[in-house]
C-alpha cells in the first residue's frame, strides 16, 4: 500500500517534470491554436473573437469561482475553456475598425519575436540574469535618446554603456515613466545640502523644512494625463499641487498663465517641482508649445518634463517631427513604445537629457546592483523586468526610421481625411481638429446645429446636455454591436465657453483602417442615433417654441 | 519622374501594410526559429546560448551604435543578428544548473499561452480594451486572496467583481506591489480628517502637520528587500525612515526589538506607517514570525504588510504552508507569480485583506476609469498593462494546487538535500540553513575551518576577509565558465558576531535540477578555488606562525 502510494507520487512527479521538458504536440489543441495564430493571426482573431458584446455580468459568471482548483487539468481542456470564455470575449484591439484607443495592430514579426523573448525569460534588473540584454537595452535607450535629443556620437560613446550614467529607463508603461521623471525631479530639487541628507534619505517633510517651502507644485495644462496626479499623490506632493493651467482654443497650455501661476506659487512659498508639457494630449491629441514652455521652465529654474507617451513616435517622421519642436529642451521625456511604435503592451520609456540625472534615484543592494556594476536595476523604479527592449530594438531595425515615418504620416493624413469627412456631414460636428492622428467629434442632428450657433447660451447649454446623452448612447450601442469601436470623453471646447461636453474620440493608428471603414463608422453612428429613445422630436418642438417666444 | 516617386511611395506603403497582415512564412529564418522553440525549447537554448561567458565590454561592441537605422531591414537578416549577438549571449535562466537566482524554467505551455496573450494585446487598464480579461483578472486576484486569506465563498461573491472594491492589484513585479501596499498604508494612515483633505490630495508635509507627527517610519527586519527603501524614497517617507530591526540567528526579525523600536519612535513623534514581515528573505530565504509581528502591529495599530514576493507560493503546499502561519493576519501581501509560480517575468501581485483598502488610492479620469465603472485601472499604480493574469490563471488551472505542491515540496526537499551535502564536505561551510529552497554557503579550505572555530576574533576576522575574496573569485569564474551559476551576497551571520561575510547563494526552484548537478557544482567550486591566485599557502603559513606566537 505504502509502496503503491510512493509509486503514485513518483509517477505524478515525473508527469510534472515533463511539463518543463516535453513540448506541446503540434496536433494538440494548444499546438493547433498556436499554428493558427502563426499562419493567419487576423483570421484567428476574426474567427474566435465574438463581435457582439456580451454583458459584463454574463461574462463574470464564467470567472466567478475564487476556489483554487485542487486537481491538475489537461492543457487541451483548459485551452478550450480559454478559447470559448476568454479569447471569444476579449477585445479585437487589432481590428481596423477598433479606432477608439491607442492600442493597435502589431506587425506580424512581433509574435515570434515575443516568443523568443519569453522563452529566454531574462530579468533585466541585473546583468547576471540578462547578460547581452543589458547592453541591448542601453543601446535602445541611446537610440531613443538620440531620436529626442540628437546628441553627438561622442556623447553616446561616453555615456551609453557607462555604469555611472543612465540615458533613461525602461518601464512597464507611461505611468511608471512619468512617475520616474517626477521622482528624479523631486530628488534633484530637494537634493542633499549642508546637514540635510536629501529628500531620498530624509523624506519630504524635512526637505520642505530645510529648503523653507510650504509645498511643491507640478504645473501642467488641464489636458495633462491623469497619471501626473497619481504621480503627485505617490510622491507625497499631493494631487491638489498638480496645478492645471488653462488651455487655448487648440488645447495647448496658456503660456502667460503658466508663467504667472509659477510666479504666484513661488510668492506663496511653494517650490516649482516641474512643468510638464504634453505631446499630445490623451483626449484631443494636441501638443503644447514645448519651446515656449522650456523657456518658462528655464526662467523659473525648474525641471521640464515632456509627456510624449503617445505623440513621441512622431519624431520618426521628418515630415511631422517639427510638431514637437522644443522637446529636445526637456530635462526628461516619456515615450510609450506600445503605443505608436507598434510594440506589445508593456514598453514605456523615460529619457533623461542629462545622463547624471538618474543618479538622484540610484540605489544598491548586496546581492544585486552592487556599486560599480552596470546592472540596470540601480536606476529603475521597478525591480525584476522582462526583456521588452528586444522588441523595441527589433522593430526599430526591421521598420527603420523610414518605415516608422510611413506609418506616422499615414495615420496623421488619415485623421485629416476623417476630419474633412466629418466636416462635410450635415449632422456631425468636429470638436477638436487632429494635430496628430487623434480627433474628437459628435453627432448633432442638423436642426440642432443652427441652435448651437444661435448665441443663446441657455438654449445651447440645453442642447449640449441633450447631445451628451445622445453621444453616450451611440458610443455604447456601437461598442455593443461590435462592428466598430470609438471611445468617448468629456472636454470643454472654447466654442461652448468652457461647458463640458461628451464627444466621440478616435485614434487612427492602425495602418489597416481604410477610408471606407471611416465612412461606415459615421453611417453606423447616424443610424444608431436615430434609434435613440432620447426624445428628439419633443426636444425639437420645445426648442422651436422657445425660439418663437 | 513625379509619377515614379509616387509609385515607389505606394509600393513602400503596400509592403509596409503587409507586415501587419502577412504572417512569417514557416520556412523563413524567424519561422524556423519559432518552430525550433516550439518543438524543443531546451534543445534550442542549449544549442544557441553560448555557455562560456564573453566579456561585457566585448558584447557592448555589438550594441554600441546610437544611430537610428534609416532603412528597413529584412526580418530574416535581423533575426540572424539577434540570434548571433543577443540570444547567444543571453543567460540560460532555465538551465537546471542555473541555481543562483529566482528565475527558473517555465512549463512548456507558457510559450503558446504567452503567444495568445500577446496576439490579443489587451490593455487591462479598462474594460473597453480588455473585456473578459477584466473579470478574469479579478478572479485570479480572488483565487490568490483565497490562497492567503481563505475567505468564505460569500465574501468572494460580494467583493470579487464589485466596482467599489478591490481584492488586490496586478503589478509588473514585486517592487510595484510593495510600493502599492505602502502607498495604500500611507494614504490610509493620513486619511482625510476635519479640514484636512488627506495625504493623497494635500501631500505629506500637510499630513504630518495636521496629524502632529515629525515623520513616518516603516519597520522591517534588516533582511528586508531593497525595494522597501526605494518605496519609502518614492513615497516621500525617506530611506532613513525604513528602520532595520535586527534579526536572530535564523535571520528572523527580533520581536522584542520590533516592539521597543515602535514604542521609541512613537515617543519621538514618529508615526508608524507599517510593519513589514518578510517571507522569505531574498538573501537567506527565511520567514519572519508573522503571527507575532501581526500581534505587535495590532498593538501599535499600524498597517501590517507581508512581502512574500518569493515565498508566497509555499501556500500551495499543504505540507509547508504552515511555515507562513500568520500571513492571513496581514493587511496586505505581495506575491510574485514570476518567481515560484513559474510564470514569465512581469507578474507581481499585491493582495488586500480588506477589499475597501484600495479605495485610498482610487482615481478617475474622463475618458477611462469613470466613476462606477469596473475598470481595473482605477485601483492600480500602473496605467496600461498587459494580460499577464491569463498566464497565472492558466497555470493555476493546469497545474492545480496539487501540481504546485509537488513543485514546492520538491524544491524545499532538494534544498535540504543540498544543505546536508554541504555539511558532509570537509571544505564547505553551510552559512544559512534552508527554510524554503534558498540557502547560502561558502568554500572554506579544511585547515581554515579549525581557525574559524578557534574563538580568536582577530584571526577569524582575518580569515573571513580572505574567504570573501575567495568566494567572489570562485563565483565569478564559475559564472564565466558557463557550466553552472550560483549568485553571491553578503550577510552577517551571528556565528561571526555580526561580521559581514560573502557567501554563495543558491535558489533551488528549477524542478529539473538533479542531485548530480548539485554534487557537480560543489566539485566545480572546489576545483576553481584551487586555481585561485589568492595566496592560500602564504596565508596558511602566516596564520600558523600567528597561532604559534
TrEMBL record, chains A, B:
Coiled coil regions, renumbered to chain: none
Transmembrane intervals: none
Keyword Lyase assigned: yes
Entries under InterPro entries matching the protein: Asp_decarboxylase_pyridox (IPR022517), PyrdxlP-dep_de-COase (IPR002129), PyrdxlP-dep_Trfase (IPR015424), PyrdxlP-dep_Trfase_major (IPR015421), PyrdxlP-dep_Trfase_small (IPR015422)
Keyword match Iron: no
Cofactor field: pyridoxal 5'-phosphate
GO CC, any one term: cytoplasm
PANTHER family: CYSTEINE SULFINIC ACID DECARBOXYLASE, GLUTAMATE DECARBOXYLASE-RELATED
Protein's UniProt name: Putative pyridoxal-dependent aspartate 1-decarboxylase
Gene: panP
Amino acid at each position: 500500500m505504502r509502496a503503491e502510494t510512493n509509486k503514485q507520487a513518483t509517477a505524478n512527479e515525473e508527469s510534472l517534470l515533463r511539463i518543463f521538458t516535453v513540448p506541446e504536440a503540434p496536433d494538440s489543441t494548444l499546438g493547433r491554436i498556436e499554428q493558427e495564430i502563426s499562419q493567419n493571426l487576423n483570421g484567428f482573431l476574426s474567427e474566435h473573437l465574438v463581435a457582439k458584446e456580451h454583458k459584463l455580468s454574463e461574462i463574470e459568471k464564467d470567472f466567478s469561482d475564487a476556489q483554487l482548483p485542487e486537481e491538475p487539468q489537461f492543457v487541451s481542456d483548459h485551452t478550450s475553456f480559454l478559447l470559448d470564455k476568454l479569447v471569444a470575449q476579449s477585445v479585437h484591439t487589432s481590428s481596423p475598425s477598433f479606432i477608439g484607443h491607442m492600442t493597435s495592430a502589431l506587425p506580424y514579426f512581433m509574435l515570434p519575436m515575443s516568443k523568443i523573448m519569453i522563452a529566454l525569460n531574462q530579468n533585466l534588473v541585473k546583468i547576471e540574469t540578462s547578460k547581452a540584454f543589458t547592453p541591448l537595452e542601453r543601446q535602445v535607450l541611446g537610440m531613443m535618446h538620440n531620436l529626442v535629443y540628437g546628441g553627438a556620437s561622442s556623447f553616446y560613446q561616453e555615456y551609453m554603456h557607462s555604469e555611472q550614467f543612465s540615458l533613461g529607463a525602461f518601464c512597464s508603461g507611461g505611468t511608471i515613466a512619468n512617475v520616474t521623471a517626477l521622482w528624479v525631479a523631486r530628488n534633484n530639487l530637494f537634493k542633499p545640502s549642508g546637514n540635510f541628507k536629501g529628500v531620498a534619505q530624509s523624506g519630504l517633510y524635512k526637505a520642505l523644512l530645510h529648503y523653507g517651502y510650504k509645498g511643491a507644485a507640478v504645473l501642467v495644462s488641464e489636458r495633462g494625463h491623469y497619471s501626473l496626479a497619481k504621480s503627485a499623490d505617490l510622491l507625497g506632493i499631493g494631487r491638489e499641487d498638480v496645478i492645471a493651467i488653462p488651455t487655448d482654443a487648440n488645447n495647448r497650455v496658456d503660456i502667460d498663465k503658466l508663467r504667472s501661476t509659477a510666479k504666484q506659487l513661488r510668492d506663496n512659498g511653494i517650490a516649482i517641482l516641474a512643468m510638464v508639457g504634453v505631446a499630445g494630449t490623451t483626449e484631443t491629441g494636441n501638443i503644447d508649445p514645448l519651446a515656449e514652455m522650456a523657456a518658462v521652465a528655464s526662467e523659473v529654474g525648474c525641471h521640464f518634463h515632456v509627456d510624449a507617451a503617445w505623440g513621441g513616435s512622431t519624431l520618426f517622421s521628418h515630415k511631422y517631427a517639427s510638431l514637437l519642436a522644443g522637446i529636445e529642451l526637456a530635462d526628461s521625456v516619456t515615450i510609450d513604445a506600445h503605443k505608436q511604435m507598434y510594440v506589445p503592451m508593456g514598453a514605456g520609456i523615460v529619457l533623461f537629457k542629462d545622463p547624471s540625472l538618474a543618479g538622484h534615484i540610484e540605489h544598491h543592494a548586496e546581492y544585486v546592483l552592487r556599486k560599480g556594476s552596470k546592472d540596470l536595476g540601480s536606476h529603475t523604479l521597478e525591480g525584476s523586468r522582462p526583456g521588452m527592449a528586444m522588441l523595441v530594438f527589433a522593430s526599430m531595425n526591421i521598420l527603420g526610421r523610414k518605415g516608422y515615418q510611413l506609418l506616422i504620416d499615414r495615420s496623421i493624413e488619415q485623421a485629416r481625411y476623417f476630419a474633412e469627412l466629418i466636416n462635410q456631414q450635415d449632422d456631425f460636428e468636429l470638436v477638436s481638429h487632429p494635430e496628430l492622428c487623434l480627433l474628437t467629434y459628435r453627432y448633432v442632428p442638423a436642426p440642432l446645429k443652427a441652435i448651437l450657433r444661435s448665441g443663446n447660451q441657455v438654449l445651447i447649454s440645453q442642447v449640449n446636455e441633450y447631445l451628451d446623452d445622445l453621444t453616450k448612447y451611440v458610443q455604447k450601442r456601437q461598442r455593443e454591436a461590435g462592428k466598430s469601436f470609438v471611445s468617448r470623453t468629456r472636454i470643454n471646447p472654447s466654442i461652448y465657453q468652457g461647458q463640458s461636453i461628451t464627444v466621440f474620440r478616435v485614434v487612427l493608428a492602425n495602418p489597416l483602417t481604410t477610408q471606407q471603414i471611416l465612412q461606415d463608422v459615421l453611417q453606423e453612428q447616424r443610424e444608431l442615433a436615430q434609434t435613440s429613445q432620447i426624445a428628439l422630436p419633443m426636444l425639437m418642438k420645445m426648442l422651436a417654441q422657445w425660439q418663437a417666444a
